[in-house]
Structure formats: C-alpha cells, structure tokens
What does this fold into?
Amino acid sequence: MFENRLLLALIVVIGVPAATVAYAWLVEAVLGRIRPTVARGLRPWLWTGPVLLLLLVYLIYPTINTFIISFFNANSTEWVGLANYEFIFTNNAVLIALRNNLLWLVFLTLFTVVFGLLFAILFDRVRYESVVKSLIFLPMAISFVAAGVIWRIMYDYQPPGQDQTGTLNALVTAFGGNPVAWLIERPENNFALIAVAVWIWTGFALVVLSAALKGIPVEIIEAAKVDGANELQILLRVTLPMMGSTIAVVATTMVIYALKAFDVVYVMTNGNFGTEVMANRMYKEMFNFTHFGRASAIATVLLLAIVPIMIINIRRFRQQEQM
Amino acid sequence: MKRWLVLLLASLFAVAFAQGELRTPQEAALEAAGGEELGGSVSVLGVWGGNEQESFLEMVRPFEEATGIDVEYTGTRDLNAVLFTRVQGGNPPDLAGLPGPGQMAQFAQSGDLVDLNEVLDMEAFGNQYADTWSDLGTVDDTLAGIFIKASVKGLIWYNANVWEERGWEIPQTWDEMMALSEEIAAGGETPWCEAMESGAASGWPGTDWLEDIVLRQSGADAYDAWYQGELAWTSDEVRQAWETWGEIVGDPNMVYGGVPTILTTNFGQGGNPLFTDPPGCYMFHQASFMTDFFVESYPDLQPVEDFNFFPFPAMNEGDPTSVEIAGDLFGMFNDTPQARALVNYLVTPEAQAIWVERGGAISPNQDVPLELYPDPIAAQSADLLTSAEVVRFDASDLMPEAMNNAFWQGILEFIQNPEGLDDILSNLDRVQQDAYSDQ
Amino acid sequence: MKSRALSPAPSERERRGNRLLQGLRRFPLHIIIVALVLIWSTPTVGLLVSSFRPAHLVTTTGWWTAFIPPWNFSLELYEQALSAAGMGQSFINSLFITIPATVIPLMIAAFAAYAFAWMRFPGREILFVAVIGLLVVPLQTTLIPVLRIYNNLGLTGTFVGIWLAHSAYGLPLAVYLLRNFFSTLPRDMFESAALDGASPFTAFFSLALPLSVPAIASLAIFQFMWVWNDLLIALIYLGGEPSVAPMTVTIGNLTNSLGGGWQVLTAAAFISMLLPLVVFFTLQRYFVRGLLAGSVKG
It folds into this structure.
C-alpha cells in the first residue's frame, strides 16, 4: 500500500496524530455552526463515535457472531441447540478449567492489587522511585514467549542428587530440600502458573495505582498532617479511600484478565496436569479440533461470567455521577 | 586456456553430469516454471524456523534466481491457528505447510486445497516418490498434499563409546533389548532416558513409543485400524502395547530420574544423560532429528564415533522389519502460475538435495542419492526408510487432532499413574467416538 | 514546594540533624524495597545472565554457575539473534505498526472517555458498561469475522488494517481507565470553564488532557507494550513477509519447529525489550505529583 517508506514514516509520526486532533476540531467546528440545542444532543455521539464504530466492527459484531455459532455444529452448518453447552458442562477438562479460572480470579486479582498497592506506596517514599518502578514494570515489557523461557529457567527440574539447573530448585536443594517438579505436582502447579501471571501483571497494577496516588492533591495530605494524623492514619483514612475508585478499576481489570488467562498456561503447560483454563480450552477447540461450536460456547460462557462484574460497575458509575 | 576450450570442457561436463546424476537446481527450477521467467511472487506459510527456515530459503534461492519469482516465506510455530484463521477468513497463503494429514483431509474435504494431480508431472512424481508418500497425501482421489522432507521415528540412540567399553551387542529383538535393560538395572544403574516435555505438544514422544510397539506387536493391519478409529483403545492389541511400554516407563529402576524427570524434561534435552560421566542412562528413544539436539548441548560430539542408533527392534526374530516415519506436508491453496512452479520445483530431487546436504532432513524423493547426506547417521536413517519391509506413518499424526491431543494427555497420565490404565483407555475410547464422528 | 512552604523554616543545624535521624529511621524502608525488588528481578537476572552464556551451557547448567570459574561468558547468542535475516527491517516495521496503534486508540478513547465522564446523553450507562464487558472477549474469536471484512475492503496485509485492529482491541481498557480518571477531576473546574465560554474542544485540550497526563502516559505504555509484543494479530492481518513482519515474527523464527535453538530467545528477549523500556523511562517523568495542586478547595 505504501511503496515509499519515508512517506509511511511521515504518516506514522505526524499524519496519524494530526488526523485524530483534526477530527475533534472538525466536530466542534461543525457543531458551532448548527443550533445549540441540536449540537448538545449530537455532540456526545460525535465524541464517542470513532470508539463505538471500531468496537462495533472489531468486537461487538464478532461477539454476536460467536454467540450465534455456539448453537451450531463443528463447522457451523447445522443447528444443534444447546448441545455444545451440554458438552462443555459435562466435559471433565472444561470443569477443571472452570475450577482453575476461579483460582486465577481470586489469587491473581488479590496478589496483583496487594503488591501493586504496596509497591506504589513504598516506592513513593524514596528518591530512586523511577528505577525500582522500572524493575517491577520490566516483566510487562517481556513477550510471553520470552516469559516462557524465563520461567523455564526458574522452574526447571533435575532428579534429586543431580546439579539443579532451575533457580528455584537450586535454592530448595541448597537448603537441604528435595527438588520439586513445580509444573507437574498438584496443586502447586496452578499456583506456579498464577505466580508467573502475578509477576507480569503487578507492573500494570503498580503503574495505574501509582498514577492515582500521585493524583491525590498535596493539600489534603498536608491538612491531615496539620491535624496531627500519623502516616498510618493518613494512609488508611485519606490515601486509600481517595484511591478507592482506581483500586476498583484495577481489580475489575485483573478479574477480567484472570477469566481470559491464556498466554502463561499456553506456553508453560498447555493445560496438562490439571492446569487447564477456559481460554486455553477454547483455543484448542477452535484451532486444534476446529470445533467452532464448542469454542464459541466457551467464549459465551466467559462473557456471561462477567455479568456480575458489570452490574457492580453500573452501581459505581451511578455513585460517581452523584458525587 | 583458450576460451573455446573452456566452453567445450564445460559443456562436456554438463552432459556427463546430466546423464549420471542431478541437474543444477536452477535448471530444475526453470523447467518447473515451464521454461519461463515468470516473475511475480508466491506466498508460503510454514512451521519452519531457525536452521530449518535457513535451509528452506537456501532451497528456494535457485528457484528465485532462475524464474524471477519472489518466494515470500512466513514461519510460525502457531501454524494451526494462523493457517486455519487465514483459510477461514478467505485469505490463505498460496502454499502452506500443513500441520498434519488429519488437518489436510479437513481442508481437502472443504475444497480449500488445489488437486496436485493437475499440477505436478505425475509420471516423474510417481517414479521418484514411493507410493506410501503419495497415498498419505491423497484424500478422495485428489492429491492434496506432498511431502518435501521426512524423518524416521523410533530410533534408539546410544553413546557409542560407552557401549564399546562395556562390550554390549546391539539388541535384535525386543526381548534382547529388555534383557540388556534388566542387566543394567540390576547393576544399580538406569538403562533408559525418557523425556516427554514439548511445550503445547507435551506427550508426543510417548505416542511414538506406543506406535512402534503396536506396529511390531500386532502388525500393520491393527496399526491402520487403530489410527482410523476402528480399533478401540481398550482392545487387547492397544492395551498390550501400553502394558509393554509400562515395563520400562512404569518401573522406577528402568528410567533415569523417575516420573518428575520424565515429565519435565524437554525431549530435546532428554538424551543429555547419555553423555555425562558417569552416564545417567544408556538408551534413548527418539526420531532421526535428535542429532541436532545432541550437538546443541554437546558441540564436540561426533556422529557414529560418539553417538549412534539402532532401529527399534522387532518383537520376535523373523518378523518383518518395520519403520515409522513422519514428514512435513505441503499443500496449495491458490492456483497461480507462480505457486504451480514452486510446487513443481519443491518435489524435484535437485531442490530436496539442497536441504539434505545442509543436514537435518531426509528426502522422500528416491532420486536424491544417499551419498549427499552429510554424515553416515543421516544416510543410514535415509536407507532405513527405503529398505524397511513395512513402512507406516506416525499414527498419532494421522488421527483427528482431538484424538491426538487426548493421546498426548493419556501418555502423561499413564506415566504419572500406570495403575490407572483402565481409566485412561476408556477415556480415550470416549474421545475416539466423539472425534471421528466429526470428521 | 507547596508542602515546604507550609511548615515553619527550620534552622540549618536542625535540618541536618533531622536528615540524619530521618535517614536512620528510613533504613528499614530501603532494606524492604531493595529486597522486594531483588526477589522480583531474579527471573529477569537469570535470563540476562543466560543470554551472555554459550548456548550449550544454557541447556546443561544453571545460570548462576556462570559466576564460578571458569567464567564462561560469550556474545554468541546476541550475535546469532542480531544477525538473523531481516532483524533490522522488522525493527522498523514494529515501529510503523506500534506508533499509530498507540496514538489512535489513546486519542479517540480520550474523546469518548471525556464524553462518558462529562456529557449527559441517553444510553451512556449501558454503553459504558458494554465497553467494560468487551474487555473479556477473547481476541481469537474475532479474528475470522474481521479477516473476512478485511478481504472485502482490501485491508489485509496493510499497515492501516493492523493499526485499526490494534486500536480497537486496546479501546475497552483505554476508555475504562480514562473515564475513571476524568471523573476524578474536579467538576467545578469544568463548570467554571464552560461559564467562561470555553468550548468542549478547549476544555478537553487545555484542561482534561494536561491534567490526566499520568493516566495517559501509563496507558500509552501499556498499549505500546502490547502492540510491540503482539505476534498473532500481526500474523493474521498483516502476514509475516519480511517487508511487513514485526520483530516478534522474526524472533519467533529463531527457533525451529521442534523448539530447537530456544537459547537464542534469551538474547532476543532483551533486544526486543530495549525500546519499550526506553519508552517507559521517557514517560516516567510524567508520573508526577501535584498536577492538580491548587485546583481543590480544601
């Protein structure tokens, strides 16, 4: 499409950003010329328009498509009713996956939020904040293939008595323990996988929570200090409540990512040894077994699983409006 | 030298070469393109990366030079996902490596693949390829896929120095092999290494074991019925094979490191204990491509001198020699002149000789001379392929993907708990009923 | 700055004594931070050390043995990774893909988030919650329907196609985070701006955007990182031909189909991580306190 790479570079660096700003400018220029009451009704749709359009094409339409083909057979040629749902809810592998997703949901969310918060608050107090923050953030910058290599080096196993090549087992045996096959033994293996995800995603929680922490006006903290509050009191009564909505956002995001957890499981165990998760099962049904009906049914179940989370978010949305 | 003399000599050599052996790859390429410099490009999607990708690109370079066609190769280890999505989305590559015969059949039945009977010079192809290969590529009378590279499975690797030192003979039958294993185990050492880890495909090394045993224990007919879904997993033939393998893998005295080691060790590093001092084990069952991995971990090892193999032994003396093979299938999704030219080129012995000489591949084309193989081990395995009385393709690759996947998992479960064989087999039967009905 | 003005000015001597005392009191804090960060970095350090070792030792010994004589270090893996065919080209391709695929979703998500936060219109609750709901859609289910649309529009294999795809996939999180951030900005500020006659365009670009720089910067980093590390979406919509392939494709092709040669991924991981980390460091200075100073009536 772009023969000239220099032209492409210009489009990339200048054209695209300029076009987005130009859109907003154009919208206001047009709205300024029509009757204010009409403009007021039209404005929100033009501001949200690009987002809604892209979401419609790339996410909403495929999701409706997914929902429909979840009632069809493997290659979507024959209506099978609820048979795919019946299959996934009686299939042992899927039931294990459901249980594991619950584990992921609880522990991934808990640990990323707690660690993210802890790091954000601790690092805020030291001058080398940007360095330590970068080190915690680093795993986010690693592709999941590389993450697989890293954790292979961490979890590697050699028989007892041999020199260990895995970091964790070298530590365990150095303290006189027996090497552990982290990815094989149940239930350790599920937690070993969740640990990898926590290691990656804490950087996300840290960055968002830290931005929220910095957003708390200094005056409020100072006022609390003047009132004689100590650091712990400030943390519990001022800082955390003011970060409440951001903590909720991070937790929601992590719950959703726990539900669609895939990468880590796919590279490390592919769901063997009782570590299956829903998204990995869906991937198998879709691309390996090419059973689009079952794959779609799993995707639909994932979508239904977040309805409670959406309800909580509607409530929060209304509360924020009333503030 | 005078100019005319050079020309004369050159043409003499060319004639001699053409009569005796292969043409130059450029000549083969030009002929494959119908003698025309077509230009344009052909897109190829495959699973090859690293040294394989280099070899493939080296293989098509003369083709690009001679025909002016650009070969745009994309490699991905997620071939299943990428190929299926692109075919379903209506944007398939011109040519693609196919994940396996099962998937090939699916593509062929939904009309995505071009019938290569109409594309290839079938007479030359028939002369150069054994029937096994063309049969495997045929779905309902259309030639849907061709093999351009093969490997021999079920070789037993050993450390030649150690075997010489101990004065061990190469076992000719299963019983001799087990007798030797027991002798080693009785001395307090572990005879075998086993390694099942292979990322998303973990467990497949075990499927090779079972296939080797079924093929030799119950014969080719049972083997065929088994992968076609007509022989149940709970049948005596299949159960017996699991139990036979269980004599090795289910016995902690037989295998290095015990169950966790078997399950966590990547098959590529599985043979490493053969070469430690003292050795951790003395035999390792793996395909012909294992040599790459030996040299990757121990760069100083020499083929034959340091490591060597013997073929998986027959169950009884006098049984026919059998060999299990595997290979990389290629199919054509878009019928363009450039794609036709490339397919025609890829099946020639001239093209395949390039990869063979670079190492790591066995050519399914019989016209590729054995002396081109870079080391005696590669030549031996290539020879095994042509000389065996019974040749069968990797059964798990021939099964529907869902069956194959369940097979891998069954292997892993069996290693963890050999006592649970009944449950594993009846579970595999359930998958068999479901998976084959979809096809 | 502001905080210091509030407390009475201490004498020079007092200040020095305080600092010493404070330093001692804060010692455990430093210990805790350093310990946590060390534990967190261990896996990465293992990878880094491995990447400087000869390939055959990576598979046969633990990375810490590199620190025991004979110190066996080598640049072999970096040489191998950097000399891979098309690495330079694919680096540029990755930039061409990633920059617009970061800018577009951030800008349009900011417009939408602003509307969700400060404009009243029917159905916005439902719409906003639907956006959150879309976070859970597994991308794999969208590939085939979208690819069919792309074929009809001729977008397959073009950079525009992949920009739009990555933008769309990044939108739910961007809208969600930004709306949350915008709604924490003080309402009276926007109301007084509107009274002064500022248009929403002005209010957005001169108030909302500058005040949300930390949020936008963090989103920019995430989106940049995801697009930079993406492999599957690029292979589907763009293809992996050398002229368009991003770095992830080139790196993925360093290992063979059986996983042989994975050691080189250790070096490749650091090479591909370099730019995202530079971006992270550069954007760090926007994570500053006190953007809202003076805007809140205490």
